[in-house]
Amino acid sequence: MNPEIGHYALVLALAVAILQTVLPIWGARANDAALMRVGPSLALAFCGFVALSFAVLVSAYVRSDFSVLNVVENSHSLKPLLYRITGTWGNHEGSMLLWALVLAIFGATVALFGGNLPARLKANVLGVQGSIGVAFIAFLLLTSNPFARVIPAPAEGNDLNPVLQDIGLAIHPPLLYLGYVGFSVTFAFAVAALIDGRIDAAWARWVRPWALGAWAFLTLGIAMGSYWAYYELGWGGWWFWDPVENASLMPWLAGTALIHSAVVMEKRDALKVWTVLLAILAFSLSLLGTFLVRSGVLTSVHAFATDPTRGVFILAILVIFIGGSLTLFAARASSLRQGGIFAPISREGALVLNNLLLTAAAAAVFVGTLYPLALEATTGAKITVGPPYFNLTIGALMLPVVFAMPFGPLLAWKRGDLAGAAQRLMLAFLLGLVAAGVAAYAQGGGPALAPIGIGLAAFVFLGAVVDIAERSGIGRLPAATAFARFKGLPRAAMGAALAHAGVGVCLFGIVAETSWNHETILGAKVGDSFPVGRYELTLARVEPRTGPNYRELVGVFDIRQGGASVGSVESSKRLFTARNMPTTEAGIRTFGFSQLYVSLGDELPGGGLAIRAYWKPLVTLIWIGALIMALGGTLSLSDRRLRVGAPKPARKVAPVPKPVAAE
Amino acid sequence: MTRKGRRLVLISAALGVLTIAAGLVLFALNDTIVFFRSPSEIAQEHTAPGTRLRIGGLVKDGSVVKSDNVHVRFAITDGGADVEVAYVGILPDLFREGQGVIAEGKLTGPMSFTADSILAKHDEKYMPREVVDALKKQGVWQEGANGAPVKASQGNTVQ
């Protein structure tokens, strides 16, 4: 397909987005049903044009159309087909187009499945979505056109950054964007509610599935990014407190707070204003994250091909959306009817504590990420805020969250019984102590924090089990009755327990990996052996190989345990010829939940190879835990009341929509 | 508990968490931040040995000495001064002589440094911003040279 078609489709998408911003909101204000009804059609048209544009760009990559500058800079005709496709979003322009596509898909989803939304709310939501579309498509067209041509067209491209030539690029950015952009829907709902000045429990019921979906995707996206960095960068680390990771962690923390406060709002009609604020914050942090990464103000892995001229445009978008929504919030929040008040010891109280600590954690990440920028702008001093800062602040703030987690679901709404909850958690607590004791015994004189962490992880995991057991009456009721009750439990309760159990699993992996990993760095020649954890590795042979667009030097290691061979692992150093750029391909062998990790360094003067090998106990639990969390979110999403939808507010006495006074 | 009392508990809990978080952040910021210095700044400022720093510049041509085990020595230069760096470990893939690098670690003497981590570029076009600024100050920065972040120019772009 001709690249100009893609460009033209983008221009049409911009025009449609402008209409989608203006018409439905105007219709809602003028109470014009016909104008409000054009919202869904425009959202679908917008999605169609952006999808067409995206398809054209993908096709240019697949065909290796080197008359398109973006393809020249990021592709190569010898690159395997999968990486030609994923390379579409492995660069600034393409990744912004993917962002816009995800936004358009979400808008279309609201249009298609929002049938039971009140007309005014739906019109306002689609209008706000449209305005985000305007900003992003304008940004693409004015500063980052992916369809710019090159004359004359070069015969060959520059190839994609080899670090990105990996299946991870096919999975990580789309998942992350589904999470980031998913919060645009909750943001649109929040702004729509503020425009309308009306908010009720039904509003929370519509918002919660979107927040849950976005949260589940963001969880998966972050976990996938973490695993990708772990195996691709060859440093054996899974979280670096890199500004870009922080950029995704901030909306995740705010989103986690949001899915919890939305429950309070839906069930108890309380925390309304707070929920609206969180919905705004979650998306604001997503926007900030996207742009911190894209604008290149932060130095990081993701800052490929940065261009400071885009900075002003980006800043304008941030100011308009974040500043605008917060101003609207300040002006209108007081007009929202306040909800009920509740006892401090209650389910609501526990969720408030969760919200306070999660938002404080998000704020701590925010400060740590932006403080260097602020300091450099004001004093010129260049500093780095590194892992020690984040480990200390996030550790201290998340510890009470994790400890309180099993208590929350066991407290009743309105007025809870803390002593009763503690009593029911006694078994989980004792087993947690046992786990801590076993860990302390097993590690001998290791770090003192490790057994505490293991005990806490076990407590959280078992606390989730206790929650489900209590709800279904396992142990109290006859087995058949308990099983029937277990099957009849609402999926939202099951999902919450599953997600909480996932936190325990993840914590288990984090504590085990950070406390008990073994690292060996040495120079070795063929035939040399060295111990890593409880295994012994032997560099069996070193052989050169050739791939489609790279040459590599492969080190093959035999793994032995107690003298018996348990397999082998290959690690390689690749040289991508188009960019003359080397990468390290780590060799990973999984044993149970633990991994043996080997990466190659340079050739040494004496003829050996520099080798870095790790034994990482239970490391996979970190990502398995995150998967369980996302699964819990998905299960909760399939809850009957969310599938069936909220009761129509028409059943209540519908207030006559009065035109809002012009501001 | 009265309505007022409940609200009071809520507000004091919020303030309490906020205070603790703010205290933590300030304490941690005070204690854990690492300053960035260029070799020339270190030469002028006589920073005390043992100070944790990040040093950035170019890997001096001909300065890299690798030993049979994984000990490496090299010099970081910004054109005005050189700092000798010792490092044990695997160097990043894109660590090369004449290329930008950032080393984090401790000063061991006036112009010597022990690094515990070495950061190089992730992309051959990309140079750490701090390094660019340090080089500009010493006047050795040339746009387009040394893998500077110039836009690829394969001809004219048509919008």
TrEMBL record, chain A:
It is found in: Cell inner membrane. The keyword DNA damage does not apply. GO terms for cellular component: plasma membrane. Keywords: Cell inner membrane, Cell membrane, Cytochrome c-type biogenesis, Membrane, Transmembrane, Transmembrane helix. Residues 89-295 form the Cytochrome c assembly protein domain. The chain crosses the membrane at residues 6-26, 38-62, 96-113, 125-142, 175-195, 207-229, 249-266, 273-292, 312-331, 352-374, 394-413, 425-442, 448-469, 489-512, 618-638. It holds the Pfam family CcmF_C. One of its GO terms (molecular function) is heme transmembrane transporter activity. The keyword Cell inner membrane applies. It is a multi-pass membrane protein. Residues 315-640 form the Cytochrome c-type biogenesis protein CcmF C-terminal domain. One of its GO terms (biological process) is cytochrome complex assembly. InterPro entries: CcmF_C, Cyt_c_assembly, Cyt_c_biogenesis, Cyt_c_biogenesis_CcmF. PANTHER family: CYTOCHROME C ASSEMBLY PROTEIN-RELATED (PTHR43653), CYTOCHROME C-TYPE BIOGENESIS PROTEIN CCMF (PTHR43653:SF1). NCBIfam families: nrfE, PRK10369.1. Required for the biogenesis of c-type cytochromes. Possible subunit of a heme lyase. Belongs to the CcmF/CycK/Ccl1/NrfE/CcsA family. This is C-type cytochrome biogenesis protein CcmF. It comes from Ancylobacter defluvii.
Automatic annotation (TrEMBL), chain B:
Residues 1-7 are cytoplasmic. It is found in: Cell inner membrane; Cell membrane. The keyword Membrane applies. The keyword Iron applies. GO terms for cellular component: plasma membrane. GO terms for molecular function: heme binding; metal ion binding. It is a single-pass type II membrane protein. Transmembrane segments: none annotated. Keywords: Cell membrane, Cytochrome c-type biogenesis, Heme, Iron, Membrane, Metal-binding, Signal-anchor, Transmembrane, Transmembrane helix. It comes from the Bacteria. Its main location: membrane. Residues 29-159 are extracellular. Heme binds at H122, Y126. Pfam families: CcmE (PF03100). GO terms for biological process: cytochrome complex assembly; protein-heme linkage. Belongs to the CcmE/CycJ family. PANTHER family: CYTOCHROME C-TYPE BIOGENESIS PROTEIN CCME HOMOLOG, MITOCHONDRIAL (PTHR34128:SF2). Heme chaperone required for the biogenesis of c-type cytochromes. Transiently binds heme delivered by CcmC and transfers the heme to apo-cytochromes in a process facilitated by CcmF and CcmH. This is Cytochrome c-type biogenesis protein CcmE. It comes from Ancylobacter defluvii.
